[in-house]
Structure formats: C-alpha cells, structure tokens
Specification:
The protein is of the alpha+beta class and about 300 residues long. The protein folds into three domains: about 130 residues, Periplasmic binding protein-like II (D-Maltodextrin-Binding Protein, domain 2, 3-Layer(aba) Sandwich), CATH 3.40.190.10; about 90 residues, 3-Layer(aba) Sandwich (D-Maltodextrin-Binding Protein, domain 2); about 70 residues, Alpha-Beta Plaits (2-Layer Sandwich), CATH 3.30.70.120. About 25% of the residues lie in helices and about 30% in strands. It is built from eight helices and 16 strands. The strands form three sheets. Strands 2-3-4-1-5-12-6 form a seven-stranded mixed sheet. It binds phosphoribosyl ATP and zinc ion (ZN). Phosphoribosyl ATP binds next to helix 3, strand 10 and helix 5.
Length: about 300
C-alpha cells in the first residue's frame, strides 16, 4: 500500500509510533484500547485506520519529533527523553520547537542519569568540572551543565555509551537507566538524575484547525479514560452500616460508593470504583474492618 499524499492527511489523523523497540507494543496496545484498529500494509510501515480515520506510521523513535515538525504526521508516541533532546537541539539553534508533550502515558519509564565509575567517591556536581562525559543526549546534558555553571567536555556517542569509560573515551556517562543492571555490569554507579522519562504523546504546538482537531480531541478523551482506569478496579462488598466510616478510611482512592440496603436489615451492599492498586493486603484490611463478600472486578471502559 502506498502512503497517501500529505494533502489527503487533513481528513485523517496520522500517528507515528516506534516500528520495533521498547515502546512499540505498549503504544499499539494503548491505541487499541482506545478503540483503534488498522489494516497492516505489506511493507509494515503504514497501517490504514479501519475503525476511525486514524492511521499509523511505523518509524524509528528518533524520527518522530521531526515528522511532527514537518507535518508528515500529526501525533507521535515517543520517549520524553527523545522529545526533550530534540527540543533542546531546536532551542540552541534559536528555532522555536514545533512539537511538545501532550500527555504522559505511564509506560516506558526510565531516567537520564549521570553515572560515574564505582570507585569514585561522589560528593557533588562540582566534581564534574573538566571531566569528559559520554552521552547520546548532548543537548540535555549541555543545558544541565549550563544551569549548574559547570565546564565539562561532552563526548557525543550514538550507542554503547556505558562502555566509554572502560575504553578511555570518557571519564563518566550520561545515559538512560531503568533497572540499573547495565550500569552495574560496566562498574558504573548512578549519582544524579537529569530527567525522569516515560513514553509521551507528542503533538504540534499549534492546534489543528481542520477535521483533525475533532479526531485528536476524541482520541485524547479516550486516552484519558484508559489512563485513568489503568490501576482502577470495581470493588463490591457487604458491610454493617456502623462499620462504613472505618471502611471508607481504608479506601481513600475510591470514588463515592453506591450504597444499597439489603432487605431492610442493617447490612449494606456497596460498590466503589477504586483508582489505586487493590492488593491482597488491602482486601485483608477491609475484611478485618468489617467488609465481607469482597469482590474485585476489572474495569475496561468508562464514559463519565
Ligand atoms: O530503533 P529505534 O531508534 O526506534 O529504537 P532505539 O533503540 O533508539 O530505542 P529503544 O527501543 O531501545 O528505546 C525506546 C525508548 O524506550 C527510549 O527512548 C526510552 O524512552 C525508553 N526506555 C525505557 C529505555 C529504557 N527504558 C532503557 N533501559 N531506553 C533505553 N534503555 C537502555 C538503557 O540505556 C541501557 O543501555 O537499556 C539498557 C538497559 O537498561 P537497564 O538500566 O535496565 O540495564
Ligand atoms: Zn532510537
């Protein structure tokens, strides 16, 4: 299937996601849970939206901000680290960025950390003066060094950043970390966080003025609904009327519950939408405080 011409895009929304990599499956899953479905093309670079006029473009994550800036796609799902690095690049060349973060999406969490050799005794950032720092995020690192007033040398690398100190290319690194296992395997330890990152929905700075405005608003509403319900569960239980205040104290993350009397007794049947994680411990605490017949049900969709 050939890519529809840009002029045809105005009636349809085009969202870029990572073709393959850490964010690709969760991005697809999120869009699918917003009710989107697609017809895959043979080259698997473009998927035609079937349930809504919303198409997918499958690309490298680093290309997403520029595709939005160029108008080749309308929205994108990308790491905040990639977006922020490209914003910093545009700012330093005095260009106003054409894209920005629209929503944090709650997956792909990681940090952009400074990490030093394990045998360093770390005191504070002033130790970085005159050091060589290897990174794939030169823009963000430069911004941070400027705000700290530190004069250090940035060694830009596109990959294998963690090995740079061992190879003598740098004294320390500034790199993405999630579990920290890669740093540890390279005898490095994290000492400072420059950016907390996760996958975000990126979009243009200027609002859409055609049919895409309504499509983007619809998608955002659905996305907000899905994100809000991420850890939410419907809790059903019965309790004596007098235990209710103590039980509600154990449910600070619950919406006001629906309460129904059971056959003219003092027993109440309750249902409450809870937004926090419903662990076994929480259920046991509720039981201890007087709840019985506790049931936890998944919530798939909600339209307020
Ligand atoms: O091919 P393409 O360019 O699209 O993909 P990519 O190789 O550039 O990106 P990919 O798939 O590796 O990562 C995509 C996004 O996932 C990143 O931009 C981040 O927003 C996010 N993310 C989350 C991570 C990590 N966690 C992560 N751990 N990206 C990279 N890493 C690296 C980290 O730098 C380290 O080298 O994974 C390694 C293992 O990390 P530890 O700390 O768990 O050992
Ligand atoms: Zn990439």
């Amino acid at each position: 299937m050939s890519l529809p011409a840009l002029t045809a895009v105005r009636e349809r929304l085009r969202i870029a996601i990572q073709k393959s990599g850490r964010l690709s499956d969760p991005a697809r899953a999120l869009l699918a849970s917003c009710g989107l479905s697609w017809r895959e093309s043979r080259d698997r670079l473009f998927c035609y939206g079937e349930s809504l006029p919303v198409d997918l473009l499958l690309v490298r994550d680093d290309d997403i901000p520029r595709l939005i800036a160029d108008g080749a796609c309308d929205l994108g799902i990308v790491g905040r680290n990639v977006l922020a690095e490209q914003v910093s690049g545009r700012e330093s060349s005095q260009l106003v960025p054409a894209f920005r973060e629209w929503r944090a999406l709650g997956f792909g969490a990681c940090r952009l950390d400074l990490a030093v050799p394990e045998d360093w005794i770390w005191r504070d950032a002033s130790q970085l003066a005159g050091m060589r720092i290897a990174t794939s995020y030169p823009g963000l690192l430069e911004q941070w060094l400027d705000t700290q007033g530190i004069d250090a040398q940035i060694v830009p690398l596109t990959g294998s950043v963690e090995i740079a100190p061992k190879l003598g290319q740098a004294d320390l690194v500034c790199d993405l970390v999630s579990s920290g296992a890669t740093l540890a395997a390279n005898q490095l330890k994290p000492v400072l966080t420059l950016l907390q990152s996760e996958a975000v929905l990126a979009g243009p700075v200027k609002p859409f003025t055609d049919a895409r405005a309504e499509l983007a608003a619809l998608l955002l509403r659905r996305m907000d609904g899905v994100l809000r319900l991420k850890d939410s569960k419907l809790l059903l239980f019965q309790a004596q009327r007098q235990t209710l205040p103590a039980l509600m104290k154990l449910l600070p993350d619950a919406e006001p519950p629906t309460v129904m009397p059971v056959d003219g007794t003092d027993t109440l049947a309750l249902q409450a939408l809870c937004h926090g994680v419903m662990t076994w411990q929480r259920l046991e605490d509720l039981k201890h405080a007087g709840a019985c017949g506790l049931m936890v049900l998944p919530v798939e969709r909600m339209l307020a």
